[in-house]
Amino acid sequence: MKTLKPLLLTFAFLFISNTSQAQIWKKLKKKAEQAVEDVIVKKTADKAAQMAGKGMDKIFNIDFDGAQADPSILPESYDFEWKYTMQMTHKKGNMNMTYYLKPGAKYFGSQPELEDNPMANGMFMVFDEKLDIMAIFMETEDGKSGTLLKNPSIDIEDIAEQEEVNLEDYTFTKIGTKAILGFECQGYQMENDEMKITMYMAMDAPVSFNQIYGSHMKTKPKGFDPKWMEMAENSIVLEMDMIHKKKKKYNVKMTCVALEKSPKTLVVSDYEFMDLNTDQGR
Fold it and tell me: In what residue span(s) does the DUF4412 domain sit (predicted)?
């Protein structure tokens, strides 16, 4: 999706995780039709696939026949302390994605919230940067099952270079502040001839994706002050508005509707892991 291209490393993650997971659900649906007849997977995938951009296959082109990992490498459990919910508003519809984080942890969890399909709450995904894997946990009336996949290494700026995107073509401006969910958020704006991106970040957030993926950048747009990155070490995006000046269909707005303490523990042994190659559980 073209709206991904101009985002800085620290801001790109949110949009990528929403749309790339939609691609993953689309692939899960295809696999489910072949072997795992699970209504939650199929209905969730149907909705999520509608939200996904075709270009995301370049980022999460997961081969379910050769990308599985051994579940024995997983820890006994994944613990989370904070819930962070982003609402994505797009021409094709709205979608909520809830992320679960823990200060200092090198992993995070995510869960879709689909208005017309409350059963989607039965799916939970964990991205573990340290183990370089993505675990999909599903809970249905028939029980709990899991699938473990190798997580491809993603370099946002390398992808931008391949797509002939130059961050130096963008002007980066520090704008005013805005109160969101009780946090005083600093605003920033990126703009070029095609795109205008306005974002507000809580600089003193209790959790941040920077702890997982870092906040370094190889290239910087015009007007960008490196000191801002130091200030953003513990930051998280609470609002992002992306406007395409020529094609409105690419317009997307994301707003944080919840950032609150919500302890959650996922016990790995509670799930029977599936081998999608052989359709046999582990």
Answer: 80-257
